[in-house]
Amino acid sequence: VDKELGLWLATVPATPQQRRRTFALIAALFVASCATAPFAKIRLWESPGFIPTVQAIIFVTALITAALLLTQFSLARSRALLVLANAYLFTAVIVSVHTLTFPGAFAPGGLLGAGLQTTGWLYVIWHFAFPAAVIVYALVDRTPVRASTRSVVGGSVAAVIALAVGILWFLTAADDIVPAVFVDRRTYSPTALYLGAVDTLVGAAALGLLLRRGGSVLDQWLAISLAATTVELAMSSFFSAARFDVGWFAIRIFSVVSSTVVLLALLTETTRLYAKHSIALRALHRERANKLLSAQAATAAIAHEIRQPLTAISLNGSAGLVYLQRDPADLGEVRESFETIVEDCRRMSGVIEGVCSLFRIGDLAGQPIDMNEIIAEVIGMQQYQLARAKAETHRELMAGLPLVRGHRAQLQEVVANLVNNAIEAMEATSDRDRVLRLKTQLRGRDAIAVEIQDTGPGIDPKRLGEIFDAFVTTKPQGTGLGLAICRMIIDHHGGELTASSDGKSGAQFEVVLPVMRT
Amino acid sequence: MSRYLAVVDDDTSTREAVAGLLHGCGFASRAFASASDFLASLTSRMPDCLITDLEMPDMSGLDLQRELLRRGLRIRTVVIAGHDSDSYRKQCRDLGAAAFLVKPVGRDALIAAIS
Fold first, then answer.
1. CA distances from A262 to A138, A219, A223, A383 (A)
2. What is the pTM for the complete model shown?
3. Does A362 touch chain B (CB under 8 A)?
4. Residue among A230, A236, A225, A233 at smallest CA distance from A204
5. B interface with A, Cβ–Cβ below 8 Å
6. Residue A291 — φ and ψ, nearest 5°?
7. ipTM of the complex
8. pLDDT per residue over A93-142, tens digit each?
9. Is A312–B14 a contact, with Cβ atoms under 8 angstroms apart?
């Protein structure tokens, strides 16, 4: 199960479809930045409040992303995840410092003793550190960390915060020494262009590395995030000329996109993985319960059936002994006893074979069951599969449908199996709507019919007769036991399971069950 | 007077095996495939002991016991059941059965129950 579903976002390999989506989104980002570029230098209004607002978003998302990635690290123990988590943590710390020191945001010259160059340099370092960390993430060896995760997490978090504080301290203390990135509070210096170009190159290198690797689902979203960072840096280096021009505002928007994308992916993919796992788990439980059930029933049936011949064998053996002990022994009677024993043994093995081949459900007492209710339960359980297959459900359930007598879990299994088959069949449908039609109605006076119809490719009419045989399957990954068991269950309920199809426009399965006698 | 036993069982092989063993042990017996056949035979001869299967179609071992009580006939009755069940055991006792045996039945248990 683990291999099939993938345990962690960081290790689930991306599907070709996900990769195409990545390229499309990256292309969209480039188009958006190209469309903005000609207007980048247009001055807009000065709004210092914009920075705290936008960067508060970046701070919170980066912090949550870091926390989620650290959690994944502590479970998966991947060095790469640790690096990435700390890159986000560093971003969160640096962005908060950047906001506090931004001139005009909280104080005219910025807080924390900021000089003219402080914010500019913080921006350069922030945008250098993140892509650089992604390069490390992509290249670091994938062997799991052995040391205690608590001390590794604690140590790295402390180091990241210390690093950010150290950088801030250095920048404020050495404001006159560091190369100037701002000429005045609004205008970039030529040095800013070079530093921006370096950052852009690092970003592009990280992006290229991720795209070449193909890698995991996480890599895909990280690539989109880096693409946003790269266009942001290109915009800031080559197009935006000063604070508060169109380019400068665009930079902030790309910045938010870049910081949000991985978080959104983490949340949605985790939820999706969770749903997949819980569905798989439920299916497993149901299957196990059913297996147990048929094993119990088969055992009971065997026990019940072999007691008769076993009694006869035991009594005939005793009779044979009695005749042997007579003086003289009555060999004619002894022979008769032995012949009967042999015959009873043959009968007994026939019983065992019969029970095994049928998984016979001994005494099917059953309970009153509303098939409409069973359908509602199954649809409820398969909601996720239906949504994923983009299939519509049309229900025509007869009100006041008579009850049937039966075994709830087994009938549920039958309907679930048929619905599942229908959904799987429709995954191949692209030229028309995917519609799952469920219908209940009276069939004569003493029976009801449940129809399950799909708009999949249908079943070759020539094969309709054999699809209920055990081990015959039309699916690439099926055991073929599903429909055989379904038919067996319906047979035991005194009903009939049939299939019809024209081999083109879909298949229809019909379950007919006798109405419960009152 | 030699004892006469009646065997009622819808399953041919069990019925014949019980009758065969009884014959070997020196008992005179007659076997019936259903409770109603047995009841019909009562007009000609009353058995000293009845050995009946519990689960039979139409008329079960319990039904047969009830019917005998209704007619006011007291016959020593041994019930043979397909599986053990406390509730059946109790019902049979309450209706006056002398023994409740569970298949597969051995010779000693059967002989002990009828004597």
1. 15, 9, 9, 27
2. 0.53
3. no
4. A230
5. 11, 13-14, 16-18, 20-21, 23-25, 80, 82-83, 103-107, 110
6. -60, -45
7. 0.76
8. 999 999 999 888 787 878 887 788 888 899 999 999 999 999 999 998 77
9. yes
